[in-house]
Inverse folding.
């Protein structure tokens, strides 16, 4: 399969890339890992007139933590970089849990974290983790940079809030207010399939008490489901079985699954409840061990 | 050199963009003119006649087209040839020769790691990348590393055995080299 003809540019700086987008007038698209974009142009779901390949721009493959604990992930950090990080599990357990569940190992060597967020697939794994963590995207255009909360960045299925002349250059995850706990669970029919249902949970614990609680779901709605309000019933409480069940019920109620070839709507909602319960129960057990 | 180009657009007009790229394929620098939409897998197979790289699903699912890109496994149906400019690509043709097989190739022979053989080049390159990173993988780690490569003969059991065989051989060979 070949895409329609396109012009190819490989700029060496973000400024050059922005100028190319500007010249493209809405018909140019950024090519990072390409693991979603290239299949889409091959299937002719998308037919940009120009691809602006940013892989040759130096300095975009960083993953750094500021002194205050803010995590910054550059536009060319591959899924595999997160998977192979030896420190991420301690600082960002929700991201670490999702890293090895994105697509398959070969796709993960090439696909990028930020590109995946821009792709805005309702079944995307990273969007769910980012919403649970209260993450933001830094975008740069001709007039400078701005930050967009991920909940406002994804405006619909496969649609993001970037202007035609802007590039997403960095994902930002705010520091935890307490001990970071969390996980990501995904039910998939086989490796590399999209989620039948998946759950991202991120808690900031103050001792045995939940300080901040974040949650988001993939695969169970027309877009990534923001379940932060639903799981906020845990804030100020401890992870008792009763509190866990109340939170799991609230999150399952926030899901909006449809019956399809991956399962019935009831089944998917049941999976959401099971996954929330499982993640919270595991956190409760590890807190007990630590105490 | 025009053959590649004909593959995509038999009668390219003046508006057809063509780029000259230099790619190190199996240790040899190859300079070719490509239209940007030419996929790496097609450059390898039709342009450079390296037909050991197979094109299977053409949708990034099956991994038959796996090559090593700067040492990392990559599905060559999901990269444009023009993106490989200045990079290193290794295909199954670069792994070994008939009289000097790579240990992974030997493993697939010894443990009967192939049936129809279609997935084999991709399986072997993904395995080679795994063993370079992790010389002593568990069975689970082998299965995990190959989970992006499909075998429609479902011969996974022997594929896993082949990789474990190769891992052992490479570990045993190492002290002699040192």
């Amino acid at each position: 399969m070949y895409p329609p003809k396109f012009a190819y540019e490989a700029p060496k700086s973000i400024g050059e890339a922005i100028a190319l987008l500007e010249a493209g007038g809405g018909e140019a698209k950024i090519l990072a890992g390409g693991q979603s974009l290239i299949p889409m142009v091959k299937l002719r779901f998308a037919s940009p007139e120009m691809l602006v390949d940013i892989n040759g721009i130096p300095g975009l493959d960083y993953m750094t933590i500021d002194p205050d604990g803010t995590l910054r992930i550059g536009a060319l950090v591959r899924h595999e970089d997160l998977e192979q990080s030896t420190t991420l599990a301690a600082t960002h357990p929700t991201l670490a849990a999702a890293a090895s569940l994105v697509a398959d190992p070969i796709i993960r060597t090439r696909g990028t974290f930020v590109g995946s967020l821009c792709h805005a697939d309702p079944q995307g794994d990273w969007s769910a983790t980012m919403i649970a963590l209260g993450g933001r995207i830094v975008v740069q255009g001709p007039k400078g940079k701005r930050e967009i909360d991920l909940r406002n960045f994804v405006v619909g299925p496969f649609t993001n809030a970037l202007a035609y002349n802007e590039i997403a250059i960095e994902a930002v995850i705010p520091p935890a207010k307490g001990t970071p706990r969390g996980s990501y669970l995904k039910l998939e029919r086989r490796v590399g399939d999209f989620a039948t249902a998946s759950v991202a949970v991120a808690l900031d614990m103050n001792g045995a008490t939940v300080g901040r609680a974040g949650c988001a779901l993939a695969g169970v709605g027309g877009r990534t489901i923001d379940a932060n309000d639903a799981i906020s019933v845990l804030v100020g409480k401890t992870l008792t079985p009763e509190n866990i069940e109340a939170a799991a019920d609230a999150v399952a109620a926030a899901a909006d699954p449809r019956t399809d070839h991956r399962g019935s709507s009831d089944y998917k909602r049941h999976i959401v409840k099971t996954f929330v319960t499982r993640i919270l129960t595991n956190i409760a057990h590890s807190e007990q061990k630590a105490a | 050199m025009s053959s590649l180009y004909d593959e995509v657009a038999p009668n390219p007009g003046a508006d057809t963009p063509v780029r000259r790229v230099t790619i190190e394929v199996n240790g040899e620098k190859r300079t070719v003119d490509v239209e940007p939409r030419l996929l790496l897998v097609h450059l390898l197979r039709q342009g450079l006649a390296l037909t050991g790289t197979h094109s299977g699903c053409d949708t990034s699912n099956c991994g038959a087209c796996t090559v090593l890109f700067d040492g990392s496994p990559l599905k060559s149906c999901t990269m444009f040839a023009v993106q490989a400019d200045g990079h290193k690509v290794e295909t199954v043709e670069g792994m070994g020769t008939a009289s000097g097989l790579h240990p992974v190739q030997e493993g697939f022979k010894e443990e009967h790691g192939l049936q129809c053989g279609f997935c084999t080049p991709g399986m072997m390159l993904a395995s080679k990348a795994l063993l370079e990173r992790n010389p002593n993988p568990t069975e689970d780690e082998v299965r995990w590393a190959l989970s992006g490569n499909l075998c429609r003969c479902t011969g996974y059991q022997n594929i896993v055995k082949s990789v474990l065989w190769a891992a052992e051989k490479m570990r045993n060979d190492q002290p002699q080299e040192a």
In short: Chain A has three domains: 7-53, 63-173, 179-290.
